[in-house]
User: Which sequence fits this backbone?
């Protein structure tokens, strides 16, 4: 866990130095995973523009859930492709990301386990601010593992882009 925290910290520092970094928090709206304390997710990363409207980026997401003395920490990492118009003010953002979706599980009568699978997420939302500078962002993400029988998880996120 310490290595993960160090990695996220390095990514945040690099994002701040380069610009295009973001920090978002959100609520899982589907599936219903319990009370509000069990439905949150945080996300951080950075976008690197490869054209006026197109950006490649990295995104890391995590959360913490517990139920019946069993704890779960999903940790997802995606490489994203996003498209946003080169406009100031309100602008739409759409994107897709592919990467690793993992889960760390532990608790009473449960050995520490780590599961992983490839997956994707679809991104759609709005940004309020400068075209390549600071902005507030609101988005809906649909996440899905490529595991057999997996269904989509929907998350509403809000945050800032540096």
Assistant:
């Amino acid at each position: 866990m310490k290595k993960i925290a160090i990695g996220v910290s390095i990514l945040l520092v690099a994002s701040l130095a380069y610009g295009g970094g973001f920090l978002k928090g959100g609520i899982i709206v589907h599936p219903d995973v319990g009370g509000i304390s069990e439905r949150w997710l945080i996300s951080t990363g950075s976008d690197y523009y490869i054209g006026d409207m197109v950006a490649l980026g990295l995104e890391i997401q995590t959360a913490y859930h517990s139920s019946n003395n069993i704890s779960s920490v999903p940790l997802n990492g995606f490489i994203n492709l996003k498209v946003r118009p080169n406009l100031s003010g309100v602008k739409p953002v759409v994107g897709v990301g592919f990467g690793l979706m993992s889960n760390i599980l532990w608790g009473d009568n449960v050995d520490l386990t780590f599961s992983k699978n490839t997956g994707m997420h679809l991104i759609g939302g709005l940004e309020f601010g400068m075209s390549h500078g600071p902005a507030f962002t609101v988005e809906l993400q649909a996440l899905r593992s490529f595991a057999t029988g997996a269904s989509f998880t929907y998350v509403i996120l809000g945050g800032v882009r540096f």
Helices lie at 2-18. The two ends are 26 Å apart (CA to CA).
